[in-house]
Amino acid sequence: MTLSEISRELRFVIDARFKDHGVSNARWQVLWVLEELGEPVSQKRIANLLGIECPTLVRMLDRLEEDGLVRRQPSVEDRRVKLVELCSKAEPLLEDMHDTIVRFEQELYADFTEEELVKTHEVLLRLRDKVFELSGKTREDIIDHISQRLNCC
């Protein structure tokens, strides 16, 4: 429950901080993934990485495209596949988002030592691995399951 509460509140706080930029939690995650990958990527891959349904992603991409932040083009190899990439209009927004996150992380981590943060991260990774072990699944199983569920993009 604690992890769930932290996750929910983090999304709420980040949403509030990004509200001035006109970007919701769902939209900033799509932009962030595109920036991290640094190349045109299929809608299916974005949905897999975010763990969301294709129709949900398509609606987000529609709005991001209307705002001039992303563009979709058919793949040269497979015209059924839509590749998504950032538009230049997204660059200043992403810079502002980075600045916002850096300031937020400074506030969030201010009362913790580097050692505490490193140890916490190690414990969370071990906890994640244990959850997968107890569920009888691996991280790859989860990714494969999501991929099969989202096979519509």
Automatic annotation (TrEMBL):
Keywords: DNA-binding, Transcription, Transcription regulation
SUPFAM superfamilies: Winged helix' DNA-binding domain
Biological-process GO terms, alphabetical: response to stress
One Pfam assignment: MarR
InterPro entries: HTH_MarR-typ, MarR/SlyA-like, WH-like_DNA-bd_sf, WH_DNA-bd_sf
Residue ranges constituting the HTH marR-type domain according to the UniProt record: 1-129
Entry-linked Gene3D superfamilies: Winged helix-like DNA-binding domain superfamily/Winged helix DNA-binding domain
GO molecular-function terms, A-Z: DNA binding; DNA-binding transcription factor activity
Protein name per Swiss-Prot or TrEMBL: MarR family transcriptional regulator
Species of the source: Desulfovibrio subterraneus
